[in-house]
C-alpha cells in the first residue's frame, strides 16, 4: 500500500543523500521529510536552498524551524514520486560539483 511506497521512497532518498560527499542524512522518524545535514558546505541552510532553487530549479524548505534539525539542514519531502526524488538528488549532486569547482577556483 501507500505506507510501503513511502517507506521505499524514504529509504531510497536517505541512502542517495548519504552517498553524496559532504551530506549526512539520518533516517527520519515519522512525517514525510528527510533532513540532510549540509553544514559541511560552509553555507547557511538558506544560502544552500537559495542556490539549489536559482541554479538547479529545486525548491526546498530550509531553516531553523525544524526542532533538532536546525541551521545546517534542509528539508526534502519524499511525498512525491520516485522520479521526482531521483531528479532532485541529481540536481543536488550537480550543485555540489559546482560548489567544488568554485572552491578550487577561489582557493
- How many helix segments? 3
Give the % helix.
40-55%
CA-atom Rg in angstroms:
14 Å
Shape: globular
Keywords:
globular; three-stranded antiparallel sheet; 7% strand; 107 residues
Polypeptide structure, described:
The radius of gyration is 14 Å and the shape is globular. It starts with a helix and ends with a helix. It has three helices and three strands. It has a three-stranded antiparallel sheet, covered by helices on one side. With 107 residues, the protein is mainly alpha-helical. The relative contact order is 0.18. The model has no long low-confidence stretch (mean pLDDT 88).
Question: What secondary-structure arrangement, pairings included, does this model have?
Answer:
Elements: H1 2-18, E1 33-34, H2 45-56, E2 61-62, E3 74-77, H3 82-106
Antiparallel strand pairs: 1-3, 2-3
Amino acid at each position: 500500500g501507500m505506507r510501503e511506497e513511502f517507506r521505499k521512497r524514504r529509504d531510497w532518498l536517505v541512502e542517495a543523500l548519504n552517498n553524496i560527499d559532504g551530506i549526512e542524512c539520518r533516517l527520519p522518524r515519522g512525517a514525510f521529510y528527510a533532513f540532510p545535514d549540509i553544514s559541511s558546505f560552509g553555507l547557511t541552510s538558506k544560502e544552500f536552498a537559495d542556490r539549489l532553487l536559482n541554479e538547479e530549479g529545486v525548491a526546498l524548505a530550509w531553516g531553523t524551524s525544524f526542532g533538532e534539525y536546525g541551521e545546517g539542514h534542509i528539508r526534502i519531502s519524499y511525498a512525491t514520486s520516485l522520479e521526482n526524488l531521483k531528479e532532485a538528488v541529481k540536481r543536488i549532486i550537480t550543485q555540489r560539483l559546482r560548489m567544488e569547482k568554485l572552491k578550487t577556483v577561489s582557493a
